[in-house]
Write a structure and sequence with these properties.
Blueprint (H helix, E strand, L loop, with lengths): L2 E4 L2 E4 H13 L11 H21 L31 H6 L16 H10 L15 H17 L2 H9 L5 E6 L6 H5 L6 E6 L13 H12 L4 E7 L3 H8 L9 H6 L3 H11 L4 H20 L3 H9 L3 E8 L4 E9 L9 E9 L1
Helix pairs in contact: 1-2, 11-12
Length: 352
């Protein structure tokens, strides 16, 4: 068991987390009953130090180390507590350590401590030191613009969305930063339930749980979407990784393990376009993998059932950002199609 020295004693590391919890709750509560009596005073001193640190952070005066209070100390408990870190001139110039929580850094591995910091934060407007160097300030300006142009002007719509969502589309798209389906297809909040992954792949039902299959289950069974749209795109890095794989490749790479879901599309591409350049093979596979994902959708019993009933449609889309065109098609699934197949493509068109 990992031990931590406190007050001249070696205590389990989990005790440290309890002490930090005391610090956040304040000295007026009684969380220290969870600790041995010999450590109770240390917890009370830590809580008092936390309170003083928070109080001093609200004033412009520099923080000063808080001397430990020995009034309630047990005999032999003379170890002083850590004091808040005081940022130097260079740190203040760069805007670092704007909110000093260094008195709990030892428990930073405990996510509950981080959550408490967020809960204690007051949602007021403060001058941010070094804000001109903060890359998030541009996002703040965009958010405020969004709030004014969308939320304020369409307030009733956003109030309705706060109560429920009824999207017509479930979209499976690539995580590529150049391929945002909301931007490309103009989806507004509440119109499309979206999941994005490497190479916009849909694993088969037998693959087991994944974030994509979980999103599909929620969209189809709970939200009752009417359309599932799988969107692929040009120059997809995930497809390039798939086409570069060796047939007998075994790798610990998360990317390669994920894109291997599209091996059937890779094999089809090799058979149909193996004589073409690698770039042309990748372009072929980008579309082939979309159809592979559409067929994988039908391996999910609740998707196959709704498609058969005519209450759910499956669509493919291909966005070429080189010339800004969008190709779309719909998968037909029923018995007795031409050639004895159960699958066909209809309503294929290109928007350019």
């Amino acid at each position: 068991m990992e031990l931590w020295k406190l007050g001249g004693e070696l205590v389990p590391v989990y005790t440290r987390t309890i002490l930090m919890s005391c610090a956040f709750r304040g000295p007026e509560t009684k969380p220290c009953s969870m600790l041995p009596r010999s450590l109770g005073s240390a917890a009370r001193r830590l809580a008092a130090a936390s309170t003083r640190a928070r109080a001093s952070s609200s004033t412009p005066a520099a923080r000063r180390p808080c001397p430990p209070s020995h009034g309630d100390d047990e005999a032999g408990d003379d170890e002083s507590l850590p004091t808040p870190h005081r940022p130097g001139p260079e740190e203040r110039r760069r805007g670092e350590h704007r909110r000093d929580f260094s008195f709990v850094t030892m428990a930073s591995r405990d996510h509950s401590v981080l959550t408490r910091q967020l809960l204690e934060f007051q949602h007021d407007t403060v001058d941010e030191v070094g804000a001109e160097h903060d890359t998030l300030m541009d996002l703040k300006a965009r958010f405020m613009d969004f709030k004014q142009r969308n939320y304020v002007e369409k307030f009733s719509n956003y109030q309705n969305l706060a109560e429920q969502q009824t999207p017509k589309f479930m979209v499976v798209a690539c995580a590529d930063s150049r391929v945002c389906p909301s931007s490309i297809l103009g989806f507004q909040p509440g119109e499309a339930f979206t999941v994005r992954n490497i190479a916009n792949l849909v694993p088969p039902y037998e693959h087991g749980g994944s974030e994509t299959s979980a999103a599909l289950e929620f969209a189809v069974n709970s939200l009752q979407v009417e359309n599932v749209l799988v969107v692929g795109h040009s120059r997809c890095g995930g497809i390039q990784a798939l086409m570069s794989m060796k047939d007998d490749s075994t790798s610990g790479s998360f990317i390669k393990n994920w894109v291997s879901i599209g091996k059937s599309a890779r094999l089809s591409t090799k058979a149909a376009a193996g004589n073409l350049s690698f770039e042309m093979q990748c372009t072929h596979c980008e579309k082939e993998s979309i159809n592979s994902s559409l067929l994988n959708l039908l391996t999910y019993p609740w998707i196959e059932k709704r498609v058969s009933e005519g209450t759910l449609n499956l669509h493919g889309g291909y966005y070429n950002f080189i010339d800004c065109t969008f190709e779309k098609w719909t998968l037909v699934y029923r018995e007795g199609l031409e050639g004895g197949s159960k699958y066909a493509i209809k309503n294929r068109s290109t928007w350019s």
